[in-house]
Amino acid sequence: MNDAVQLTTPSYWDEACKYLAKRDRVMKRLIPQFGDACLQSRGDAFTTLARSIVGQQISVKAAQTVWDRFAKLPRKMAPANVLKLKVDDMRAAGLSARKIEYLVDLALHFDSGAIHVDSWREMGDEEIIAELVGIRGIGRWTAEMFLIFHLMRPNVLPLDDVGLITGISKNYFSGDPVSRSDAREVAAAWNPFCSVATWYIWRSLDPLPVEY
Q1: CA 173 to each of CA 91, 158, 167, 204: distance values in angstroms, whole numbers, following the listed order
Q2: How many CB atoms within 10 Å of residue 161?
Q3: What pLDDT does 8 receive?
Q4: How far apart are CA 164 and CA 9, in angstroms?
Q5: How far apart, in whole angstroms, are the C-alpha atoms of residue 3 and residue 86?
Q6: Which of the four, 11, 15, 145, 178, has the lowest number of CB atoms within 10 Å?
C-alpha cells in the first residue's frame, strides 16, 4: 500500500552535504559512504503520526504487522474514518487499550481542526512541536521525528534520540559516554543542517535508511 505513495526528497540535501563535509571531519568521511541515499518523506501527516503511535515500545517488525492489520480497518486512513472504528476491531488488530486512546485523540485533534496542519509550512519548529505534544501519546521525540521525516525541516537536533547519542559517542568520542551538552557542542558545527547530520549519524549505526 505504501509503495504507491510519492516519495519526496528535500531540495536542500546536496547543499547540506557539501556544507557539512566542509565543516566536520566525521561528516566528510560518512557522507560519501552512502551514495545518493537521502531523507525521504512519504504519506500524509495523520498517517505518519498514527504510525509513530502504533510503533511505540515495540519492535519495528511487530509495529509493521500491527500497522498492516490496523490500516485494513478504515476504508481510507483518515481521521473521520478512524473515529468510526469499533474498539473491539482495533484490539483485534493488536493495539493496546492505551494506543487506541492515543489514536482516537489524534483523530479528534485532526478532525476538529485543533491543530493547524495547513499553517505548518509557515510555523517555526518549536511552535509545531508545541501543537503536537498536546496530543496524547506524542512526546517531544515523536514531534521531532515528524519534523525531520514528514516536514523535512533541515535543522532539528533530537537530543532525546538514543541512536543520535550513541552515534555521536561512536563517531566523535571513540565510544565514550556522551552527555547532551557534548552532543550539542558537536552539533554546533552542523547548524543549520542538524537534521541531515543526524540522518548520517543514524546511517553510520544502521546502513538501512530510517523511515517513518
Answers
A1: 45, 19, 9, 14
A2: 19
A3: 79
A4: 21
A5: 28
A6: 11
Confidence check: pLDDT of 151 > 50:
yes
Task: Locate CATH 1.10.1670.40 in the chain.
Answer: 2-36+156-205
Residue 155's Cβ-side half-sphere holds a number of Cα atoms within 13 Å equal to: 8
The residues assigned a catalytic role are 161
CATH 1.10.1670.40 fits 2-36+156-205, yes or no: yes
Identify residue 80 by its one-letter amino acid code.
A
- Number of residues in the chain: 212
- CATH of segment(s) 45-149: 1.10.340.30
What letter represents residue 98's amino acid?
Answer: R
The rounded distance, in Å, linking the Cα atoms of 148 and 53 is: 16
What is the location of CATH 1.10.340.30 in the chain? 45-149
d(CA 12, CA 94) in angstroms, rounded, equals: 39
Q: What is the pTM of this model?
A: 0.86
